[in-house]
Amino acid sequence: MDAPTTTSADNATSGGNGVGGWFTPRKQPTPTGGEQETEGSRLAGLRPVGRPAEGEPASGGGPAAGESAGAQERIPDAPAPAEDPAPGSIFQQERIPAQRSTSAPQASPDAVLIRRTMAEINPVADKVTSYFYAMLFVRHPDLRPLFPPAMDAQRDRLLKALLTAAEHIDNTPVLVEYLQGLGRGHRKYGTQPEHYPAVGECLIGALSRFGEAVWDDETEAAWVRAYTTISQVMIDAAAADELRAPPWWMAEVVSHDLRTPDIAVVTVRPDQPYPFLAGQYTSLETPWWPRIWRHYSFASAPRSDGLLSFHVKAIPAGWVSNALVHRARPGDVVRLGPPTGSMTVDHTTDSGLLCLGGGTGIAPIKALIEDVAEHGERRPVEVFYGARTDHDLYDIDTLLRLSQSHSWLEIRAVVDRNGPLQLPDAVREYGPWNEYDAYLAGPPGMIRSGVNTLRDVGIPWNRIRHDSVEELVAAGD
Which pLDDT tens digit goes with each residue over 105-150? Predict the structure, then answer.
């Protein structure tokens, strides 16, 4: 996420006892100090354009798969409310930097019990989540206004978040960082410390009902310990964030540039300073769909005038994306959540940057280019901009102008006329890349195939940065 981990509760989700009653968080969470913003080819069908790189190798190659839209922007076509209807649910899914995950050598006892529960309920996940929300809204009707009107997508997101927590339950640094991001992000929904016990009790109730084949006292105790610590980490992160930032920002639309019939560049002016890093993303709510938030990447590095730009692609039945592309006009006011994301440039090194951007995923890549330029660095930056047609290269002119101004920047547009975008294949035609840090932004298919390609050409995991593929799928754009 966007900040280093801080210690909270027993700083894990298993093993400690720190329960303090039935899901009872501390009344006065004490923020920890020092929190800061960190974090043979089928190329006959591909047409690289733009300036040729010096010393381009001949061809290599191998098949890959993918498509493109925008890493933080969230991706291709999906059903109706899957855009990010993110209400006040404690388990609202956010993005974990997948490349930073590590596997614990041996699972803790609590992790074993929690994963066993998740395996048991997975076949009936829809019933579990429906039962959970029904119980929550019947017992605590005052919480219903925190959620969007349509709950279909949120039911899926609850399970995905539980699976994420189960997967990383023994990986304290990754899980705590993830939970801190959730805690900070949930401030915009109006989540309060007193809401956590209600959610916890209903969650345990749903899990015990549908996981009864494996449920026992030890399993319940493991879930109580885990949820208590999870909630405390989130509460502490929210309390620390409250000292330095508002829960949301109001922002006025100042320009709306329709680049194609379904892609717009939307620029807004926040009502107060909005600190962020190039490569990060935020959540956005429109006045037409209250309580439905959607993630978008910043399309530029921080600007002296404080304006923020986003590249938005309208997708079929997409609530927020269609509103921003087809309804928003200068003078409209939207709400922004806090910035987050770890796909940022490490300015302590001089490694080159290899950037793969598919569709509107080019937005954060453009921000990274501007960030390198503003730091006065001359490290090589190689950009592969993928699209299905020339028409979809809606920002190519901007990128080519940047390359004319900076000798260290190479732009290669890759158009696939023969089917699903094979952008990662084009990367094999250039290189070598073993001394580069890699950045991927686009739809899940492109990221998956891109990571495989980058590993094949010698880039280690810890030098590949992208948003969580699972979260991109959940976002549904």
Answer: 588 999 999 999 999 998 998 899 889 999 999 999 999 888 877 6
According to the model, what pLDDT value does residue 172 have? Answer: 85
Q: Any idea which of 45-54, 183-192, 365-374 has the lowest mean pLDDT?
A: 45-54
Strand partners, 386: 358, 414
Q: What is the pTM of this model?
A: 0.68
Residue 63, pLDDT score: 29
How many residues does this entry show for the chain?
A: 477
Q: What is the SS3 string spanning 20-32? A: CCCCCCCCCCCCC
Sequence letter at residue 324: L
Structure confidence by residue, pLDDT tens digits, 31-89: 444 333 333 332 222 333 333 333 333 333 332 333 333 333 332 333 333 343 333 33
Mean pLDDT over residues 289-293, rounded? 87
